[in-house]
């Protein structure tokens, strides 16, 4: 893995280039949320419909594979690339995801981290976690962490940092020859513990940093201070990854602090609810946008395609959108699919929402390269709030 920062904007936001596997990806960038290595509704043959190479970063939790094939079998097959047939994509492994494999702080102990998984509540030890990493063979993986919610005590925050640093050293000592290592940084809502953890991890031989423990109860108002406490202690030349920030405002908040990679379940939740992203991705359209209240009660960023108002709507989801869904289908057709409970509705919606959200990241990179990120951020937040 190689990473280089190419542009800064307003002090914290930065644009760079990440060389991972055979792909070269511009940052800030999105990791596509997956279930067992594949997007939730998009089949492998439809992945080519998504913008490339932006869509080649796939977030995966090794815990997903605890049901079904054994780790020994996955290793014999040749890891996730051979198992799934995705040789041009890059897998980024993080212990938890934000849908099914959530950390359970009250059950975590000094032996290992506890997670709620489809297989029930499991205690994962560092040596077991590294067996999963060795078997699945991702291009990039984050070390095991003791993630805690925002409301725990100062003593519990300190314990989480001590355990995470201890497990970091164990994971590094057991790490396979391939795959870039991202050191986990935790500390809950404590600025002091966040800063201490970041300083400790920065002294280790890692390729980048995973900021964990966010999106677990802290407010948006207290998050900037937590992010700044971490980022200020990290070297600039290494990439930063974050989980748990999914809304567009949260993404912009993370980028303002200097985060490069984002794992987000926003697309999944939109798609599951029958929503489609519709906010304009062209600066001229943004400035000319009329924000009058919508007839269907949706906010200006998305529309609810289950609504009866779309039953006879022959327009694409977004006029001028180049995604497969908008080029081939209408709002009326997707409304019909949703109302008769056809899975094709979620497939078409996930294609559009992924395409649109990747376009949002492209707009952000353009704003950073032009030196106007903070202006772009203020415009976006003010218009949609």
UniProtKB/TrEMBL annotation:
<dbReference type="GO" id="GO:0008479">
    <property type="term" value="F:tRNA-guanosine(34) queuine transglycosylase activity"/>
</dbReference>
<comment type="similarity">
    <text>Belongs to the queuine tRNA-ribosyltransferase family. QTRT2 subfamily.</text>
</comment>
<dbReference type="InterPro" id="IPR036511">
    <property type="entry name" value="TGT-like_sf"/>
</dbReference>
<keyword id="KW-0862">Zinc</keyword>
<dbReference type="GO" id="GO:0006400">
    <property type="term" value="P:tRNA modification"/>
</dbReference>
<feature type="binding site">
    <location>
        <position position="321"/>
    </location>
    <ligand>
        <name>Zn(2+)</name>
    </ligand>
</feature>
<keyword id="KW-0963">Cytoplasm</keyword>
<dbReference type="Pfam" id="PF01702">
    <property type="entry name" value="TGT"/>
</dbReference>
<feature type="binding site">
    <location>
        <position position="323"/>
    </location>
    <ligand>
        <name>Zn(2+)</name>
    </ligand>
</feature>
<feature type="binding site">
    <location>
        <position position="352"/>
    </location>
    <ligand>
        <name>Zn(2+)</name>
    </ligand>
</feature>
<comment type="function">
    <text>Non-catalytic subunit of the queuine tRNA-ribosyltransferase (TGT) that catalyzes the base-exchange of a guanine (G) residue with queuine (Q) at position 34 (anticodon wobble position) in tRNAs with GU(N) anticodons (tRNA-Asp, -Asn, -His and -Tyr), resulting in the hypermodified nucleoside queuosine (7-(((4,5-cis-dihydroxy-2-cyclopenten-1-yl)amino)methyl)-7-deazaguanosine).</text>
</comment>
<comment type="subunit">
    <text>Heterodimer of a catalytic subunit and an accessory subunit.</text>
</comment>
<dbReference type="InterPro" id="IPR002616">
    <property type="entry name" value="tRNA_ribo_trans-like"/>
</dbReference>
<dbReference type="InterPro" id="IPR028592">
    <property type="entry name" value="QTRTD1"/>
</dbReference>
<dbReference type="GO" id="GO:0046872">
    <property type="term" value="F:metal ion binding"/>
</dbReference>
<feature type="domain" description="tRNA-guanine(15) transglycosylase-like">
    <location>
        <begin position="12"/>
        <end position="384"/>
    </location>
</feature>
<keyword id="KW-0819">tRNA processing</keyword>
<dbReference type="GO" id="GO:0005737">
    <property type="term" value="C:cytoplasm"/>
</dbReference>
<keyword id="KW-0479">Metal-binding</keyword>
<dbReference type="InterPro" id="IPR050852">
    <property type="entry name" value="Queuine_tRNA-ribosyltrfase"/>
</dbReference>
<feature type="binding site">
    <location>
        <position position="326"/>
    </location>
    <ligand>
        <name>Zn(2+)</name>
    </ligand>
</feature>
<protein>
    <recommendedName>
        <fullName>Queuine tRNA-ribosyltransferase accessory subunit 2</fullName>
    </recommendedName>
</protein>
